[in-house]
Amino acid sequence: MVKLNDYFDVKYGVNLELNKLEIDPNGINFVSRTEKNNGVSAKVKRLPHIRPIPGGTITVAAGGTVMSTYLQPSEFYSGRDLYYLVPKIDLTTEEKLFYCLSLRKNKFKYSYGRQANTTLSTLEIPAKEDIPEWVYHNNVTNMLTDMLADLVTAEEDDIDEKPPLSVLDEEYVQVEQLFHVYNGIASSSVKRYESKENSNFIPYIRPSKNQSTSIDAFVDKAEISDKYIFPKGTLYVSTDGQGSHTYSYVSTFEFVPNSNVAVLVPKYKMDLVDKLFYAYCITRNRYKYSYGRKPKGHRLKELLIPSKVSNDYKKYSMNVLIDSWKEKLNIK
């Protein structure tokens, strides 16, 4: 074990206040003490008199959600009680991520009344030569590729390879020609839990504008009928809510939908890009609906979508997807 300041210069951030900055979707990341979204709370307009903190550094929350630790792939501004770590030695992306994990494991030592400020620089972390081998064998690029491949629909005997010509010959077809549409289960019919108590607990999904906020609670699979349990890689649609209806996503985990979420199960074999494409198409039809005119039942089933996804589009999209994540993670 070594002390943190043996490997890193521990520096206090620029200490800005988000409510005094101008939000800019094309601006620079603002990193705060949050434990969500890699610590990024917003994108803000650059300030001519304040130099951003460079990318490739690690941020650590000394207060708030104390010890929330992330590798920042691009330059950023920071809020109060946030430290950043500049490596003194050469470290790969995988090694930096390992040290993020190591620091988060120290969260139990702190609380809202005991912040990680004076003691942060002397926290002990594993020496570089003692970093486990799995850190290098499971590099970020391979993990990302495996994750994407794992979302491809598994082969099943009762699913046809492709739609019949009567479907493929059409430019647009109804949703129900490509997908089976299933409704979720009402919250009054399930027992909900605040946290994931063990591996048998899975998310209970609600309508949401953002996929990251669509988890309403957790449910025990042993208490739910199998017909309401859907695997990761499943396309689902929000069918209610003024600010949530019609937003569509592909799940990255096993889940149970509530009664205001419709699940679309392909009638024919589809890979990840196919499902992401159709989720995008459905979301783009949001203007047709409102809180009083929901995309439920026949309205969703009869919604027109393209009959097929071209191979050129699929190849291009998968490459873009992988390249964008590699850019976010600063992988060469």
TrEMBL record:
Chaperone among keywords: no
Keywords: DNA-binding, Restriction system
Superkingdom of source: Bacteria
Domain Type I restriction modification DNA specificity: 2-123, 171-302
Similarity-based family: Belongs to the type-I restriction system S methylase family.
Protein name: Type I restriction modification DNA specificity domain-containing protein
Native source organism of the sequence: Peribacillus deserti
